[in-house]
Amino acid sequence: MKPIFAFSAAITAITFCTPAEARQTEAVLHISAVVEESCSASADPLDFVLDTTANASAHGQASIDLSCSGPTAFEIALDTGQNGARRMLDSASGQTLAYEIYSDAARSVRWGNASGVDTVAGAADANGKATLTAYGSTFANVERVAAGTYSDAVVVTVNF
């Protein structure tokens, strides 16, 4: 009979000893991100080849490429250049050669930096890409400028 008692005591101990109840709590982890629009621009050189004969002029064109974070509206302005008033300078002779930059192939719409007046507006595509063309023209060489290497630098400003 002794073995039966030992067995019933073990069953009684198991019945009265229940495991601790599991508890839980919850919190909310808020997730956010700020994605800012961004754009970068690059421009190819705008080159002219001009001879020294009277009334000679030359045309050129260059691409301006935009890479933005997505489809983005933009406005592009071109300043008057480092030599002022859109003039290329031959540093050896000190002579200048006037030129202009246009937003159309007919070279009739000046591309400048007066917002909403002579700037160029557009939108980057779904991949954030846009390519524009700057059309350049020198004025007739009525002064017969000397042979040389004339240069200027125009700042391209992209507002988006």
Describe this structure as you would to a colleague:
Residues 5-13 have low confidence and may be disordered. It contains one helix and nine strands; from the N terminus they run H-E-E-E-E-E-E-E-E-E. It is mainly beta and 160 residues long. It has one domain: Immunoglobulin-like. The termini are far apart. It is 9% helix and 32% strand. The strands form two sheets. A six-stranded antiparallel sheet has the order 1-2-7-5-4-8, with no helix packed on it. A three-stranded antiparallel sheet has the order 6-3-9, with no helix packed on it. Strand 4 and strand 5 (96-102) form a beta hairpin. It is elongated, with a radius of gyration of 37 Å.
Ordered list of secondary-structure elements with their pairings:
Blueprint: H1 2-16, E1 39-43, E2 59-68, E3 73-78, E4 87-90, E5 96-102, E6 120-123, E7 129-138, E8 150-151, E9 156-159
Antiparallel strand pairs: 1-2, 2-7, 3-6, 3-9, 4-5, 4-8, 5-7
Approximate shape: elongated
CATH level-two architecture: Sandwich
Percent range for helical residues? under 10%
Extract low-pLDDT stretches.
Answer: 5-13
Following the backbone from N to C, one meets helices and strands in this order, namely HEEEEEEEEE
Q: Strand count, sense and closure of the main sheet?
A: 6 strands, antiparallel
InterPro entries: Spore_coat_component (IPR053167), Spore_coat_U/FanG (IPR007893)
Domain Spore coat protein U/FanG: 27-157
Protein name: Spore coat U domain-containing protein
Organism: Qipengyuania pacifica
